[in-house]
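Deliverable D2.4 — example input (structure tokens):
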């Protein structure tokens, strides 16, 4: 099964056939799918040096590769501290680059601040907008520098993970977003693409008031398509398809923790039907990520529903987890 190539083709809006690529932005319980009962921990790797560090890294990455292959994921995004992130990416590219694409998160555009910092940002935007814009320039240069470094470690995909929206809408008005975010996102995305990276823009929440601005920056793909925030993938697909922008996500993550199996099935079937399964430019995923509270029985059901759709479209490959 050509998981890596299927993923890269979908992200570049050129995949064909009934196979629906799948991935997750993060998968906190991946170790449950390891065949090795005693994998090394990230702490062990970080504390080791020399040949021992490399041996532990290879052991760790082989477990990841085997689990991802079983789950049919076409990419892996590494999330540990930056130095270790790049080391893991390099080893993943060495042991399994033929099976899946390696990704890391880099995004220095203005995101929703934490807690009290949101009020502070609002005052600063009003009182000293030129200073805020100057900071955005510096952050952009830092993002580009990080991407240049990643290019030497086998990374093929960059997830731009700054969140811009609450369930009620963007944290900035569309007019403010157009001044303080969009120009920098456009330049960041263009710089990453010029280096040869596939770019995926992630943001949760109700993106609809700023969707056209995000699309104007031309990422290869947009992730989340957050149904819990009222985002309809049918409408997003209608706007994305003429632009050749791939969509990732839309399975309501809440149903991997709560609700019924029927709730999950309705969500899965809707996004497969309206996201473009069987056509170019759709990757099946939750609308967020797999965390420590996600139920694995629900995740496997979600993937079984994907296989049902694939067989309806003519897929004749192996059953899921065979």
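Example output (designed residues):
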């Amino acid at each position: 099964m050509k998981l890596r190539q299927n993923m890269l083709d979908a992200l570049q809006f050129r995949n064909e056939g009934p196979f629906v690529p799948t991935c997750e932005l993060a998968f906190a319980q991946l170790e449950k799918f390891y065949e090795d009962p005693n994998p090394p921990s990230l702490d062990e790797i970080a504390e080791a040096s020399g040949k021992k560090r490399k041996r532990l890294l290879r052991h760790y990455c082989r477990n990841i590769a085997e689990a991802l292959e079983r789950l049919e994921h076409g990419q892996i995004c590494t999330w540990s501290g930056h130095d270790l992130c790049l080391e893991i990416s390099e080893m993943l590219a060495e042991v399994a680059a033929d099976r899946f694409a390696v990704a890391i998160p880099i995004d220095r555009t203005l995101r929703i601040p934490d807690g009290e910092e949101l009020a502070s940002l609002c005052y600063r935007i009003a009182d000293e907008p030129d200073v805020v814009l100057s900071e955005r320039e510096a952050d952009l240069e830092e993002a580009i520098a990080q991407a240049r470094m990643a290019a030497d470690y086998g990374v093929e995909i960059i997830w731009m993970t700054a969140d811009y929206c609450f369930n009620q809408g963007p944290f900035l008005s569309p007019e403010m977003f157009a001044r303080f975010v969009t120009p920098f996102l456009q330049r960041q995305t263009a710089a990453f693409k010029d280096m040869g990276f596939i770019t995926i823009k992630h943001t949760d929440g109700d993106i609809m008031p700023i969707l056209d601005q995000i699309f104007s920056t031309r990422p290869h793909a947009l992730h989340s398509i957050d149904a819990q925030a009222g985002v309809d993938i049918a409408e997003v697909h209608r706007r994305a398809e003429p632009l050749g922008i791939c969509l990732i996500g839309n399975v309501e993550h809440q149903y991997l923790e709560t609700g019924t199996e029927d709730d999950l099935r309705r969500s899965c079937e809707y996004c497969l039907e309206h996201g473009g399964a069987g056509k170019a430019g759709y990757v099946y995923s939750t609308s967020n990520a797999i965390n420590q509270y996600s139920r694995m029985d629900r995740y496997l059901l979600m993937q079984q529903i994907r296989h049902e759709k694939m067989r309806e479209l003519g897929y004749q490959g192996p059953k899921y987890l065979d």
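Residues 268 and 287 are 11 Å apart (CA to CA).
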